[in-house]
Amino acid sequence: MPKTNKVEHVFFDLDHTLWDFDKNSALTFEFIFKKHDVNASLTDFLSFYEPINLKYWKLYRDEKVTKEDLRYNRLKETFDALQFTVEDQIIYHLSEDYITFLSSFNHVYDGTYQILDYLKTKYKLHIITNGFKEAQTNKLKSSKLDHYFETVTSAESAGVKKPNPQIFNHALNSAKAETKNSIMIGDNYEADILGALNIGLDAICFNYHNVQEQPDIKFVNHLLDIKKYL
Fold first, then answer.
1. Of 127, 123, 124, 137, which Cα lies nearest the Cα of 171?
2. CB-count exposure of residue 99 (10 Å: 0-12, 13-18, 19+)
3. From CA 175, how far away is CA 9, in angstroms rounded?
4. Which of 62, 127, 221, 227: CA 20 to 30 A from 90?
5. Residue of 192, 208, 133 whose CA lies nearest to 13
């Protein structure tokens, strides 16, 4: 497979691309449920929570809910779906503690450190994330990923979220990079891949979700497979 020429800057998404969001999130819920004496089945909770959370992140990307709405409603709706009663005050405490303790867990995907060590010697590395700035900063530090990246662009710092072209342009400007010498790597087909391609920025999809591969799109199923392109 031909390698991508002229690349100088590699932009990564963080959650679900390098940082194992699902595993770390499950461990966080296990911890905060014990802290607040919430006796719901964690397995059942997560089976409802994960699609509800994805739904709310899409609404957040589309500017249809606020950060506060996302944090509260994804929990409220999950408990309602479980038919498990939790007082509003506890839900608010859970939503706050979730953010506080999420970065305490630092599992990354297999191959993360190896691919970053490989790329760091050849390219300048950057992050573009829709996650909340403070939480993402803490995740990068706790998982010892922060030193790999020269710039970190969050939706909060850019004022818009992927796939909005402005966040990609903001990140490119911060990195003193151009579309022609850069590439985006992420898991979300809409936000990361189409968002990048729509401004002329090349992209590689980390197919964490096992979506059907599209023609003319670069897909990898393991992070070390990025070496095929870079």
1. 127
2. middle
3. 8
4. 62
5. 192
Closest CA to 70 of 43, 91, 45: 91
Predicted pLDDT of residue 119: 98
State pLDDT tens for residues 36-75: 999 999 999 999 999 999 899 999 988 899 989 999 999 9
Gap between the Cα atoms of 168 and 62, Å rounded: 16
Identify whether 163 is preceded by a cis peptide bond (ω within 30 of 0): yes
Nearest to 189, CA basis, from 159, 171, 210: 210
Helix, strand, coil percentages for the chain (3-state, nearest 5): 55, 15, 35
What average pLDDT is seen over the chain? Answer: 95
